[in-house]
Write a structure and sequence with these properties.
The protein is of the alpha/beta class. It is built from 9 helices and 7 strands.
Length: 247
């Protein structure tokens, strides 16, 4: 799961961390489901797994946002009270330079460092040749942040379809045009370019190929077999195999 905004991540994290020692009752489940708009459903066996995911994703979002804004870090409560501060030397705490709410004592916060990328390659549904692009699925998956977190000269997008600029707005709603030409150094039209992952609403995740890819990590021989089958082949053959469901 990738949350659309860090607000959702922090809000759900704080609900869980405050009540982690409480009984996992119906009110907690309902509160989390409402905050996530139904994306997160908890039961006793998944509480701490979700805490871990929210920690990881909340900090990843903040690190990319800091890099996109060209600041060295962003403050957060995410990670407080967890082993992340013990195990990750890049994470430090600091005392807020301003008073807390209601004039209370300044609180301790985590400084999440900027995650500066060497390069970014993101796949969108539709784009123009200048680099303006739209996502048409339910989630942008941080594409805008990753492009802004990469240096000029290393920001590229591929798209299911490349259209003329004057036709781009007709492919979706204005709020879905989240990628600006100012974030992009190069564009390529690549139908199916997100395979084997999904590209809503164009195509779903290819579970068979993903399973084969995961299995390729079991040995050098398995990786060589996967690479020969899916990587070291011509584009036309790759597309034929995807169409035929060859995995």
């Amino acid at each position: 799961m990738a949350f659309s905004t860090v607000v959702s991540v922090i809000a759900i994290y704080e609900v869980l961390i405050v009540r982690a020692d409480d009984r996992l009752d119906a009110s907690l489940r309902q509160e989390v489901e409402e905050l996530s708009e139904g994306a997160v459903r908890l039961d006793p066996g998944t509480l701490y797994r979700w805490l871990g995911r929210l920690l990881d994703e909340g900090l990843l979002h903040l690190g990319l946002q800091a890099a996109a804004w060209r600041v060295p870090f962003l403050p957060t409560r995410v990670g407080l009270g967890s082993d992340l501060l013990r195990d990750n030397p890049r994470l430090t705490t600091f005392t807020s330079p301003v008073p807390g709410p209601g004039g209370r004592q300044p609180e301790q916060l985590v400084a999440m460092p900027a995650i500066e990328l060497d390069a970014a390659l993101c796949h969108l549904n539709v784009a123009d040749r200048r680099g303006n692009a739209m996502y048409l699925g339910p989630d942008l998956y941080w594409d805008d942040l990753m492009l802004q977190a990469a240096p000029t000269g290393g920001r590229f997008i591929s798209a299911e379809k490349v259209v003329d600029t004057e036709d781009l707005a007709g492919h979706g709603a204005l709020q879905q045009m989240r990628i600006s030409r100012m974030m992009v150094d190069g564009v390529v039209e690549a139908p199916g370019g997100a395979h084997f992952t999904l590209c809503d609403p164009e195509y779903p995740r290819d579970e068979a190929v993903q399973k084969a890819y995961a299995a390729s990590a079991t040995s050098p021989e398995a990786w060589a077999e996967f690479r020969a089958a899916w990587i070291d082949i011509a584009e036309d053959e790759y597309r034929r195999k995807v169409k035929d469901g060859a995995a």
